[in-house]
Prior knowledge:
With 152 residues, chain A is of the alpha/beta class.
Amino acid sequence: MTETTNWEPKIIAFLCNWCSYAGADLAGVSRFQYPPNIRIVRVPCSGRVSENMIMSALKSGADGILVSGCHPGDCHYISGNYFARRRFALLSNLLDFIGIESGRVNFSWVSASEGEQFAEVVQSVTERVKALGPATRLVKKIDALETELLIA
Amino acid sequence: MPTINKRISEEIRAQARKLLEEGEVAAVLGYGAGSLPMTVKPLVVRNPEDCSKLIWNTFCVLNLANYLPAALKSVEPPRGPRDPKPEGPLPKVAILVTGCWSRNIVVQIQEHQVARDRVVVMGVGSRGMVSRRKVAALFPGLEILAVKEGDHELVVQGADFAETINRWSVVRDNCQSCTHPDPVLVDVRIGEPVSERKNPNPFMQVDAIEQKTGDERWAWFTAEFATCIRCYACRNACPLCYCPTCFVDDAKPQWVGKSLDAVDTGLFHILRAYHCAGRCTDCGTCETVCPMGINMRMLTKKLNKDVLNLYNIEAGMEPDAPLPLTTYTMDDPEKFIATEVTPVPGAVKEGK
């Protein structure tokens, strides 16, 4: 199957505006190489990322998720990432509990000055997702025939 | 000698009548007899003469805390959305609670859904409630017409049979693994207080699933939730679910599809359970009301276990404490963060 041989994972990255997004920017400006598999969604704070967004991305066929925010103590909104940390800890355990492969949904802290670390995080996340292969669990398959009928 | 539950019923009627006659409360939330064997229905009593309709038995499985915010609203004098709050204290409502339901009321107080000074809590120590499904499973193919209740045994009667079964053997799973059967809030005590149970491991069922491999857990998850018909009974019976617009009803963006697609039902159950994280008291109502017999309680129980292990919080134990997800500490565990190296046990973490 050509699909699997040429397959490249699609990874949705939720990056906080103040740290990780700036970190990604710095990685680009400093010309650090990292795999082009991530699709960045800029969010105001890692505390803004709700479980609905993460699950919705998985449902829509994302092979991997990366949520990245400021290091604890560095949040632009003082405490957003502390709240996020509690929520993500529970979510990541729950997803593991129902059998979503660990490595599909990833969390990290990357500051605005850590361009190189950002490249490393994307590198390692991409490798992990590639090793897992295309996502099949919780991916909603839309019936081709049904879609055709809807369009017609 | 009357059974424990008969005596409790009498006491509930007497106390409810007293509260209503004295004008202390405007309504009493309790249970009335159901129309089928092994069922009860929630009952709001507003007149002292109706107090004789109140009952208490081993099948009181619906969580009354679910009806409390609406009951409080119903006794307020009618007013428009922009009208000012009436002068003076608003009427009170009395509610029957056991351990888990009282903790639900504590969560409602913490979340400002219920005002503590408007609720009169009639506390009953729970002896565990019987699962109708477990009883029916013992008599496959037979119709149960009546169940007579003793303190430790049930007499199940059908058209041509009558059998005595042990009560504890058909008590719901969540009651069997309960550690706080006595209410944490009590204004009017009904019956004798029951002591805390020292369960060897309240999370036994969750541990059994955790020990499986990832593929086996996924197989368990898909099989367990495959029969869901999306009736939302689990959500509607839950005292924690009071959002005016539920995430399943959101259309733009539509987080969860409305179909019976396995992914949609799976996502519904994951997100529903996740929204109860740190708030669920394991009252078991979701599982009890499910027409398909899905054990969705495993997901909330898993979250309860994590909240207890990671943050040392049990939902609804202290009205003044913050909810686990509305607070934080500087050194919350973050082993799951990819950029954090797992700290060496015992090593002192330096501040940044």
